[in-house]
Amino acid sequence: MILHDKLFTPGPVEVSPKTLAAFSRPMIGHRGEAFKNLYREIHPKLQTLFGTKQPVFLSTSSAWGVMEASIRNLVGSDRQSGSGLLCCMCGAFSDKWLDVARRCGKNAEPLQVDWGKHIGHKDVDLALASGKFDTVTLIHNETSTGVMNPLPEICCTLAKYPDVSLIVDTVSSFSAVKIDMDALGIDVMLTGTQKALALPPGFSLFSVSEKAFARAGKQKDRGYYFDFLEFKKQQTEWMTPSTPSIGHIFALQSKLEEIFEEGLEARFSRHAKTNALVHDWVRRIGFDFFAEEGFRSKTLTCVKNNRGIDVLKLAKHLRQKHHLVIDAGYGKLKGQTFRLSNMGDETEETVSQLLRAVDNCLS
């Protein structure tokens, strides 16, 4: 057996042999009955995971494709009064959304907090009270910092502004914690496959509210590849607007079977338990958390390097000695933090093995 370096990075995560086997099944035609039946079979499970009665769409792109699409479909141009985008920014990925929006020619403004802090619902309320915005972007679980934003509280605030649409990225929280799109009033909810779903990267899933569809219908320059109305039209026939990645959908079918065999509550509980193991280790070993208390991710831990160790050396030794891969800090946090993932297929046993290996390298 050839050893490979197992990923404990917060995306992409380790993909199981069973999932890889499903990914490599023989191809089928994506315009035939076999594909329609495949999409039709997985769709109810996807709706359950999203917590929605709306259609769930399959996008052959990374989540950033759908993130940009959300802006193009929902946000008006600079020439339209009141068509403003409020970007809630608390880390590398949420910060980037502002740049993406402006590159799309949108009137976007930041609601910025320090990295490691959360987006407060009162700050969102204050910004929306200005009347300048009709759309808000929010990353539920900021992967770069390990912050999980208080989604229910923020959604309650948005409910005060029925003309404002909410776009939520759940890339590193989806399927690991409970999120009910319809109950929360989310207008676009999107995720990628390479994190808690533990599938290969390069594919994404999203769902759109009726309010968001109505808004999209008013946008003249939403393009074609990511046109929400085209996705809706094609989905009624169990099709996608463009050529889908069949391998990803086979792998998704297999993963959904595993998820519902385990049970959603058991899956959520497993992620909470493995996350708690990492948190206990952080405290025991004398490190600190980068994310503030009460707003820490359930799928990864961003560890503050308050001990002043050589993080790059730690990551290198962990790979060489134990064939385990961790992240040595994202962007400007490289070396100042390191990130340990507990998402996807990981168990208390596998996370404990990781932590023992890190102990070994530190000693």
Structure, explained:
The chain has 363 residues and is an alpha/beta fold. Helices cover 41% and strands 15% of the residues. The strands form 4 sheets. It has a 7-stranded mixed sheet, with helices on both faces. It has a 3-stranded antiparallel sheet with strand order 11-12-14, covered by helices on one side. Strand 6 and strand 7 form a beta hairpin. Helix 2 crosses helix 10, helix 11 packs parallel to helix 13 and helix 12 crosses helix 13. The radius of gyration is 20 Å and the shape is globular. The mean pLDDT is 96.
**β-strand number:** 14
**Oligomeric grouping of the chains:** single chain
Strand content: 15-25%
Number of helices: 13
Major β-sheet strand ordering: 2-10-9-8-5-3-4
Morphology: globular
Rg, rounded, reads 20 Å
Rounded mean pLDDT is 96
How far apart the termini lie comes to 29 Å
Low-confidence stretches: none
* Largest sheet descriptor: 7 strands, mixed
Helix content: 40-55%
Q: What is the ordering of alpha helices and beta strands?
A: EHHEHEHEHEEEHEHEEHHHHEEHEEH
Structural category: alpha/beta
